[in-house]
Design brief:
The complex is a heterodimer.
Chain A: E1 3-13, E2 16-25, E3 28-35, E4 41-47, H1 50-66
Antiparallel strand pairs in A: 1-2, 2-3, 3-4
Chain B: E1 14-19, E2 24-29, E3 37-42, E4 54-59, H1 63-67, H2 73-80, E5 88-89, H3 91-97, E6 103-109, H4 114-117, E7 124-127, H5 143-152, E8 160-164, H6 166-181, E9 187-190, H7 193-199, H8 229-237, E10 242-245, H9 249-253, E11 276-277, H10 293-301, E12 311-314, H11 319-331, E13 337-340, H12 343-347
Parallel strand pairs in B: 5-9, 6-7, 6-8, 8-9, 10-11, 10-12, 12-13
Antiparallel strand pairs in B: 1-2, 3-4
Classes of the chains: A alpha+beta, B alpha/beta.
Chain lengths: ~70, ~350
């Protein structure tokens, strides 16, 4: 058993750069979303297809990122 | 679009696509370089929203680049330049030794579910949030529980423990740090961590191996590699030690109180006065392996960290800073490097503690 069709994508969700990693192990597609800086995992999902797995993870990550507050720095 | 300068892929496409209303925004601003390949997510309606959006974007990281195996001679050449190359092993090495007697491979992830997806054959998994900390008092593992964990894992004092994990070994480095606190002689990190193993298409296993328990006896804790609040206060108020904040620039400046998407865990944002901001990830190349000794030395020297005085690394809860601690102590060989695991969740919650904001 191996991870196949490994892919890493960077995009912006809710104003934050996000890295989506997806791959297939056996019959299951796995997707994960990390914030690019600092690189913490925000969401993960499994599905029967890559698009579904990425879609789920993007939705979950977007919800969580949307709740991130920016504070005045002064 | 943020692109890692080490990445051999940029975004040559121009355009902007929005999907799911304001929820998703993808922007590419043009650039140069070799496009790996274009990708497309369609059918996001599968996640239960409508109308069905189509989000088009470029896959920024070339899977072929990740699969490239510098883990042969090139990677070993880079590793030989470190002050203590013996604390790192390549994925190739692990492939050859993961089931060898005398070697115990342990996966430690931020995302504790990753191990169950599939792991290095022969590897066991430790959960950072239940097995590598005191679950009552905020602290590292007490000595007796540490001994039980290692004993139950079939690890003896003479076992070579190889740690790896997700997020470029964040919590693997945290485990490494604790093993060194309790004096385990031979601990190593798998360079590149879990993502490199996956990207290289190496064998995965679902079996959780069991080993005959040992009667493990740990050393008394070596607290020279652990910093506490008092030492950080002292370092902040004098120039006796360098403080290195390894969080993201947005956390350092006080713009956000936790990494994007994670719960806020402190009352105030900013950093310990006098700290320099050198995000942990700058020590890593695109494939997750550590940069060369020369590049690392340059990275820290650019912020005045040259190893001429003690160094205290901190982040939010101490795991990212154990990664940087590893780099400073073992790859660069600097003396007197410690990890402040109280980190910002301690300092940023203290009544009356001085805080600096801004870059």
């Amino acid at each position: 058993m191996k991870a196949e069709s490994f892919s890493v994508t960077e995009l912006e969700l809710a104003g934050w750069p996000v890295r989506i990693t997806s791959y297939r192990i056996g019959e299951t597609w796995h997707a994960k979303a990390d914030n690019v800086s600092p690189g913490a995992n925000i969401a993960r999902a499994r599905a029967a297809g890559r698009e579904q797995a990425e879609g789920k993870v993007i939705e979950r990550a977007s919800e969580r990122l949307g709740a991130t507050r920016r504070h005045p720095r002064g | 679009m943020v692109v890692n300068s080490e990445c051999d892929v940029l975004v040559p496409r121009r355009g902007r696509a929005e999907a799911l209303g304001a929820l998703f925004t993808f922007r590419s601003e043009g650039g140069t370089g070799a496009l790996s390949r274009a990708g497309r997510i369609s059918g996001l309606a599968a996640v239960g929203r409508s109308p069905r959006p189509r989000l088009t974007y470029n896959r920024l990281v070339n899977p072929a680049a990740l699969k490239r195996k510098p883990s042969g001679r090139a990677e070993e050449q880079i590793m030989s330049g470190y002050a203590h190359p013996e604390v790192l092993v390549t994925t190739d090495w692990v492939d050859q030794h993961s089931r060898s007697g005398g070697v115990r491979v342990v996966e430690v992830d931020v995302d504790t579910g990753s191990y169950d997806e599939g792991h290095v054959p022969g590897a066991i998994g430790w959960a950072w949030d239940s097995q590598l900390c005191d679950t009552v008092v905020r602290d590292i593992l007490p000595k007796d529980r540490f001994e039980r964990l290692l004993g139950d894992s079939g690890i003896g004092r003479d076992t070579t423990v190889v740690l790896y994990g997700d997020n470029n070994n964040w919590f693997a480095a945290w485990a490494f740090w604790q093993l060194k606190i309790y004096g385990h002689p031979d601990v190593r990190l798998m360079n590149g961590g879990r993502v490199k193993w996956l990207a290289e298409g190496r064998e995965l296993s679902l079996e959780s191996p069991e080993f005959a328990p040992t009667d493990y006896s740990a050393s008394e804790p070596d607290l020279s590699i652990r910093a506490f609040l008092g030492q950080v206060r002292e370092a902040s108020g004098s120039s006796a030690a360098d403080l290195v904040d390894v969080r993201s620039p947005a956390e350092f400046s006080g713009e956000i109180l936790a990494p994007p998407g994670l719960p806020e865990t402190c009352q105030r944002g900013g950093h310990v006065p006098g700290a320099r901001n050198i995000p942990w990830g700058k020590a890593c190349a695109q494939d997750g392996t550590f940069k060369s000794a020369g590049a690392l030395r340059e990275l820290y020297a650019a912020e005045g960290i040259v190893g001429d005085k003690p160094i205290v690394a901190y982040c939010r809860i101490g795991e990212r800073s154990s990664h940087s601690w590893f780099v400073l102590k073992y790859l660069l060989g600097y003396e007197g490097v410690s990890n402040y695991d109280g980190s910002w969740t301690e300092w940023g919650n203290l009544v009356g503690a001085p805080v600096e904001r801004g870059a």
